[in-house]
């Protein structure tokens, strides 16, 4: 049989579990208090009775049987707390202040018994008592006891009060468990409604925040943050799709136009079919390069840095400088590099190499002949590793520096250069995937008709773990 939903809730089951543990602990404490109190009361009563026995036996030893009997009568008349039974050698009662004489009490052995008594209303009651039978030198037996009924009644009242308190705790605990379970159930129901809405396609749904600062609020905030990122990713995907469709329209139309011209020229005998196919292949390569770049950016944004490892970025920077120095010289640029040693970072080397290649390639592409490009790799005062490329080309206006980091954004002065507007977008994705950032600043300024230039910095956190040993 399936349990009601309330009993399947974790808060309610945890409440019942803690209540069970509390009841078990309280029962153990109650038993300890009861038996410890009873033992202490019995010990004190025994010590008191034993003191009375010692006093009476001393009278018997020093003054004889009649003096003991007289002392018992006097003490019984005073209505003291003790119970007396004085018997002769044949077992006949000489003096006693109780009628219920315990039978079969062995000499020197403590005995518990019930004393019949009447209360103020005349009701008969049997009170707990203890006593000890002491043989005397003349063959007589002296039994001395004490009524401990008041102590027993106190322990009974204490036990009853503790049990009442435990019942109250159980009632309040179950009620509190129900109240807590209902509150948690309402909070979780809100989260479940959000999850259901998202599953049905509503990415605008958000979990309510109660501002209580508990773990449910933390879960709701985390869920909302995840949904914000998911919504942003979906919007980015939709934007990327629209941008790709828009940006590919021009190269596709250009490819179609060039192929039509090549076809006309081939039919007229002004060119060959091989040259026409070469034009089509060049345009197809440009389109494939655009698609590959978009896929690389999506991969980075979706999964972060793939297969990261610790390596010395100074070696990577030196390789990139060596690779692009001839390209800068071919264009008539002054290309220089300043690279510090020991720049350990934790990341994916191929993606970082692609990002640095994009930065250097952009600087070489947009710097006019006779200009200069400076590539630096250094450690900042904060401990981060910085790669920077500085040129004295036309630069990027301050208002456009955030915009050029977006996909497919190309400024007017770059329309004549080949490209898809994805270079800096890829660098930004690489930086974010590695926990870093990209920063654009003005270059060295206007000098000799050139400038103001541009300085692009890729800033990454330094490695926090040791490099892995190669197998």
Automatic annotation (TrEMBL):
Enzyme group, top EC level?
transferase
Q: What is this protein called?
A: histidine kinase
Looking up Gene3D superfamilies in the UniProt record yields:
1.10.287.130, 6.10.340.10, Histidine kinase-like ATPase, C-terminal domain
**Keyword Membrane found:** yes
Q: Which SUPFAM superfamilies match?
A: ATPase domain of HSP90 chaperone/DNA topoisomerase II/histidine kinase, HAMP domain-like, Homodimeric domain of signal transducing histidine kinase
Which key words are in the record?
A: Kinase, Membrane, Phosphoprotein, Transferase, Transmembrane, Transmembrane helix, Two-component regulatory system
Q: Does the keyword Phosphoprotein apply?
A: yes
Q: Which residues form the HAMP domain?
A: 182-235
Can you name the source organism? Brevundimonas guildfordensis
- Select a single GO molecular function from the record's annotations and give it: kinase activity
Per the UniProt record, one Pfam family is HisKA
Q: What is its EC number?
A: 2.7.13.3
CDD domains named among the record's database cross-references: HAMP, HATPase, HisKA
Lineage, top-rank taxon, reads Bacteria
């Amino acid at each position: 049989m399936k349990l009601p939903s309330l009993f399947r809730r974790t808060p309610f089951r945890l409440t019942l579990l803690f209540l069970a543990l509390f009841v078990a602990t309280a029962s153990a404490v109650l038993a300890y208090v009861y038996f410890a109190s009873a033992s202490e009361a019995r010990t004190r009563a025994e010590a008191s009775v034993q003191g009375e026995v010692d006093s009476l036996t001393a009278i018997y030893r020093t003054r004889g049987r009649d003096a003991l009997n007289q002392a018992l009568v006097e003490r019984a008349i005073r209505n003291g707390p003790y119970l007396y039974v004085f018997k002769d050698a044949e077992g006949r009662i000489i003096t006693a202040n109780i009628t219920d004489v315990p039978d079969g009490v062995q000499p020197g052995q403590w005995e518990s018994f019930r004393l019949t008594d009447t209360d103020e209303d005349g009701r008969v009651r049997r009170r707990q008592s203890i006593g000890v039978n002491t043989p005397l030198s003349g063959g007589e037996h002296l039994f001395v006891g004490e009524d401990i009924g008041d102590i027993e009644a106190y322990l009974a009242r204490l036990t009853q009060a503790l049990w009442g308190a435990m019942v109250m705790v159980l009632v309040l605990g179950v009620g509190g468990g129900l109240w807590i379970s209902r509150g948690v159930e309402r909070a979780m129901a809100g989260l479940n409604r959000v999850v259901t809405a998202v599953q049905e396609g509503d990415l605008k749904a958000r979990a309510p925040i109660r501002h209580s600062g508990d773990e449910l609020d933390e879960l709701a905030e985390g869920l909302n943050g995840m949904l914000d990122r998911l919504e942003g990713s979906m919007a980015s995907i939709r934007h990327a799709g629209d941008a790709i469709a828009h940006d590919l329209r021009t190269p596709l139309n250009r490819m179609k136009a060039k192929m039509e011209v090549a076809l006309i020229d081939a039919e007229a005998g002004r060119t060959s079919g091989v040259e026409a196919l070469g034009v089509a292949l060049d345009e197809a390569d440009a389109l494939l390069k655009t698609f590959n770049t978009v896929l690389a950016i999506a991969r980075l944004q979706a999964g972060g840095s793939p297969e990261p490892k610790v390596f010395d970025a100074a070696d990577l920077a030196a390789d990139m400088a060596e690779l692009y120095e001839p390209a800068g010289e071919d264009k008539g640029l002054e290309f220089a590099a300043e690279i510090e040693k020991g720049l350990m970072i934790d990341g994916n080397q191929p993606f970082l190499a692609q990002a640095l290649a994009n930065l250097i390639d952009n600087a070489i592409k947009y710097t006019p002949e006779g200009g200069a490009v400076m590539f630096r790799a250094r450690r900042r005062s904060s401990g981060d590793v910085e790669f920077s490329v500085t040129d004295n080309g036309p630069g990027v206006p301050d208002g456009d520096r955030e915009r050029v980091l977006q996909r497919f954004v190309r400024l007017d002065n770059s329309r004549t250069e080949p490209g898809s507007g994805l270079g800096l977008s890829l660098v930004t994705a690489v930086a974010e995937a590695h926990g870093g950032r990209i920063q654009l600043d003005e270059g060295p300024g206007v000098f000799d008709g050139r400038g103001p230039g541009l300085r692009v910095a890729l800033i990454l956190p330094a490695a926090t773990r040791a490099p892995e040993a190669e197998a």
